[in-house]
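User: For a benchmark we're assembling, each entry needs the component sequences followed by a predicted structure for the full assembly. Here are entry 17's components. Please fill in the structure.
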Amino acid sequence: MSFPERVFSGVQPTGTLTLGNYLGALSRFSDYQDKYECLYCVVDMHAITMWQDPKELHANTLGVTAAYLASGLDPAKNIIFNQSQVAAHAEMAWVFNCVTRIGWLNRMTQFKEKAGKHRENASAGLYVYPSLMAADILVYRATHVPVGDDQKQHLELARDIAQKFNHDYADTIRTQTNGEEFFPQPEPLIEGPAMRVMSLRDGTKKMSKSDPSDNSRINMDDDADTIAQKIRKAKTDPDALPSLEDGFEGRAEAENLLGIYAALAKEPKNDVVTRFAGQQFSEFKKELTELAVETLAPVSNELVRLKGDPGHLESVLKAGSERAAAIAEPIMKQTKAIVGFVGA
Ligand code: TRP
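Assistant: Structure for entry 17:
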């Protein structure tokens, strides 16, 4: 069976977004809006798998919404909404909790990392997080999911859940629908080189909103002066910039800054490396600052402006949630009928 192409992605409202979120995800989303039907979700239900201060969760949900819009997503073309406002996510997640196997969840590296040594004390929600993520995608029968490397394992689990559901309920699927398969196998959607932005203080660590040093990251709402200052302070090494032949062996910071330049300029990294080979960091940083300010400052200005109008952001989410529910509800109803629930 073929399914119409549909894109789904989600961002957690758990803190200010960084350049990593922007280059790795948000800035790419607008590339899809003319090609596919797209749903972009603020996954507030995923956020509470780790305790969130309610006031902050509320503000951060509007913050991610503002970031979607500031990154160029048009709310008329895309469905922008928050997860908890569409009940079908939770309903589908329950069905999927009963399809997924404990052994599958036990293999999830993100759970192991997030639960750490205190596994017994992690929330049950954190453990079944991937089945909620599968529900997010499959309750719309989304076929394409823009995700970074860290979410690939969860997407594979969503494929396994889809396949097992299709298999376990094959008889009712065949009699109640004309098709052989009820859920598609969602595929990762990554155009161009996957961008992993590393910390400005330690090129071996991912740029993270939870790093105690604010100088380790560029936040999406940093103003031009802050961006410039953080690039100036970014860690480098004393040598000139390498050419491709020298490689980046042991020079993670140099590689990261060149990668950021390439992503901002939307140029292949090789071209950027060739252009700056042999130059000093002081020179390169000037160019990088200019480019970063030119591309990021308009986004951050717009983000700050939008955050000043929470009423508008709430109405975007409400309208988006209604459109999302209109797609999800019939699929959820059919799922219930397939499972054998009375009333569906
Ligand atoms: N788990 C994703 C992350 O932390 C967020 C997410 C939730 C998501 N549901 C999704 C991403 C569905 C893609 C599709 O980055």
